Amino acid sequence: MSFRSPVRLRLAFMWSALLALIVVMPGGTALAETTKERVLREGKIVIGIHNRTPWGFRDEATGEAKGWHPDLLRAAFAELGVKEIDIRVTEFGALIPGLLAGRFDAVASGLSITPERCRQVAFGAPDLKVHDAAIVLTGNPKQIHGFDDIVSQKIIM
């Protein structure tokens, strides 16, 4: 596979991130099988996403999960031979609890990597990096140049 195509590069990156995100869940058997091993053996995976357009959302007409994350997930797992991809749309706050409870094999839904979340689950490589920014009026009349300037303001919209 050539990685010169931006689409193929993005798919390869997304796949590596997804594999790293899949967490080992207790199997209850004498021989521990990782989630990754089970998914590849069975050819099916359950993935949790939250309802946020355009990244991932439930199409009201069909009930199907649509958007950027579902498209990437389907393409990445299809290349691995995973034929059954069950993408479940849930509330954002239910993603990590659902993963820990075994309702999902993985989540792919724009979770920021924080120390608290890292104590609960394993993360793969991020597929998006966003910096914080403030939008100011033309000419920056309140002279906002950083977080300290924002905190000192009495009125913030």
TrEMBL record:
Keywords: Signal. InterPro entries: Solute-binding_3/MltF_N. It holds the Pfam family SBP_bac_3. Coiled coil: none annotated. It comes from the Bacteria. Residues 45-142 form the Solute-binding protein family 3/N-terminal domain. This is Transporter substrate-binding domain-containing protein.
